Amino acid sequence: MSAGWFRRRFLPGPPGPAPRPPKPRASPVPYRRPRFLRGSASSPGPADTARRPDARPVRSPARGRALPWNAGYAEIINAEKSEFNEDQAACGKLCIRKCGFGAEDDQEWLTLNSEEFLTGHYWALFDGHGGPAAAILAANTLHSCLRRQLEAVADGMAATPPLMHLSGCCVCPSDPQFVEEKGIRAEDLVIGALESAFQECDEVIGRELEASGQVGGCTALVAVSLQGKLYMANAGDSRAILVRRDEVLPLSTEFTPETERQRIQQLAFVYPELLADEFTRLEFPRRLKGDDLGQKVLFRDHHMSGCRSYKCVEKSDLKYPLIHGQGRQARLMGTLAVSRGLGDHQLRVLDTSIRLKPFLLSVPQVIVLDMDQLQLQDDDVVVMATDGLWDVLSNEQVGKLVRGFLPGNREDPHRCAVLAVEFSRGLALHPCCS
Amino acid sequence: MSAGWFRRRFLPGPPGPAPRPPKPRASPVPYRRPRFLRGSASSPGPADTARRPDARPVRSPARGRALPWNAGYAEIINAEKSEFNEDQAACGKLCIRKCGFGAEDDQEWLTLNSEEFLTGHYWALFDGHGGPAAAILAANTLHSCLRRQLEAVADGMAATPPLMHLSGCCVCPSDPQFVEEKGIRAEDLVIGALESAFQECDEVIGRELEASGQVGGCTALVAVSLQGKLYMANAGDSRAILVRRDEVLPLSTEFTPETERQRIQQLAFVYPELLADEFTRLEFPRRLKGDDLGQKVLFRDHHMSGCRSYKCVEKSDLKYPLIHGQGRQARLMGTLAVSRGLGDHQLRVLDTSIRLKPFLLSVPQVIVLDMDQLQLQDDDVVVMATDGLWDVLSNEQVGKLVRGFLPGNREDPHRCAVLAVEFSRGLALHPCCS
């Protein structure tokens, strides 16, 4: 990707050659629920559903169908917000090296490869918006992208430190020393593969949605276990935590217009054309109005990290703010509540031709846990959830619920499955949550 | 500052109007040592100087001349590296509100103002390079810029939360609520004032050096105490720590081409013109050569945070790397070891017209300590030093030395002064350090 590519794609330029004729439209992405839910039925909400007829039913894998690592999963059918549940999930075994998929239809979850070189596991949550298509495509595609990207670097990971040349040959005899001096580790290659896989998947989604005339986007939260490490890759506002006996470790950070303010303002500073004279990149405590003109008011610009200053209000400051609102209400260009994710290639500000995609990143942040070093215990649990959970429960509250539940159910191999259902049943009483 | 400003200043464009005739050249910035060193003499190095005739003498304020908060200061005369000591320091009382300086010549340190509104203290270290002029200008100027910037926001800081309108009037009755919702605090305005002061000082240095035909730059590490808070602002590779009985708290992070790789590569991605076809923005484990062509080698680009991947080497990858070398040897464009600081407006890559300034930031990172909340004790000490100290001692080693020295000298009001001299005497045995 070059600066030229970005400019050609997103910035207005001189009229180019005539656009290619539209491709024949592909059929829409078929709607589905995660594969591992096949055979399951929706269970009713919690005991007080009778008093709350609006409580939504909870769906989880059929009893006896274990997910990798006996992971639990549950979802609330989102019938009240939209016709389809916009969220998706996927999990499976990850076998890196040889190409070719297993016969997916016969299996409860994805087997990415039948021959092994490196094996691991993969769990993913996709929180969709603007329609279910992007999250479905992500659930169908991201693991394949990841497998391809991991296979592309697997030979390099074979040595410690990783090979400078993928072929294994040393152009310079001290190449291993250079790699070691730079502190490059095998896990850096896995992180790189995750970053590239997210980008590749985003491109696939863009092409597929364009071809089928659909729209939409999704966040992505992905856990991968490989070679004794747990990788948590996050693009969006979902969240993962590790609950241990004495602590709750955050495994991700949320990416929203608020948390990524500086990156977004910086892009608007470099390419003001992206705002099409409709938005101001400056942040004020509230949207300014005519009476503020000429006054000195608090503001923040791209280069200001933890600080504020005052500026004299000019007419251009009265435009709609690039990032507006507070907390859950914060929106990018008044439209989108997340700043990273997959899809949204066609998303435009309502009634304008202004695109949001240039401000969105598909690259995830990846956090690595060394599972051996952490000496994980039986009762240590990773909780991954979309904002529906985190809007009503804090990390500490979730930790307390997990710690209160698990020790009393040590004998049940499906205890994480039961726990996930319990969480969702609690959430089913908050129909306002996504 | 706008994107247009950046483009006009640093990017090649169509021929503009004829340049303004050169101003009459001002006289060079006169060389001096910090004002509070007046009357002091260089003391010999440590006891074993006799065995090490190359050990450099140490200079510190004359006994009895206390610095604010009984701070200690010591420097090594840098006679072996250059004719002048390129480093500088300043400290003084900070009185915010009214204009006008005290009669500086009569005082041991700077009194910034004789009438008080808010009072605090200021300590600063400037590590110069390419000549002493930039550090001298910074020591002469930065405190005035800071006072001006603080005075510009002092009225806004008078209320809690700070006033949305500097005038105090409320255009919208719920303005205080908006400010509170955004979590804006008085300390954000002080941080903003520090950031603006660094930028203003950088502009002053640029103008003065151009007028006097001098060159050079410096890092800046500034501590400010104000309203129960300690602000540590850092632009460069100096470092501050807080040594407490049971812990050592870092109060700054270093800004070097290595630690700011992503920001620097990102700028080169957006404005490839800045590399003038001489450099590659990509990072490889070592500089590539002809034999690497066509091979797949480890690399890192601007969007890759903690990760690496492989790419097929093309001819353009053989160019000199934008950031090259490792650790202390890492250089920006083969020239500069720091990525933030003041000055360097005229600095160019040797024998080329390629400027480094667009890649350098004058904005500091500011860390805030709440001194009340920390319940600071008598033996808690802030240590500020340039890389000369940190190249030979770790945070923990410095902490151990401080803890070993202070408790045995509780009665001596000048014990920090003695401690600073002891540190420098130790360093005087490492003449290789700057």
UniProtKB/TrEMBL annotation, chains A, B:
Bias type Basic residues, positions: 1-10
Domain PPM-type phosphatase residue range list: 100-434
Entries under InterPro entries matching the protein: PP2C (IPR015655), PPM-type-like_dom_sf (IPR036457), PPM-type_phosphatase-like_dom (IPR001932)
List the SUPFAM superfamilies hit by this protein, alphabetically: PP2C-like
Q: Where is this region: Disordered?
A: 1-63
Compositionally biased residues, Pro residues: 12-27
Task: State the source organism's domain of life.
Answer: Eukaryota
Recorded protein name is Protein phosphatase 1M isoform X3
Tell me the organism's taxonomic lineage: Eukaryota, Metazoa, Chordata, Craniata, Vertebrata
Recorded name of the encoding gene: PPM1M
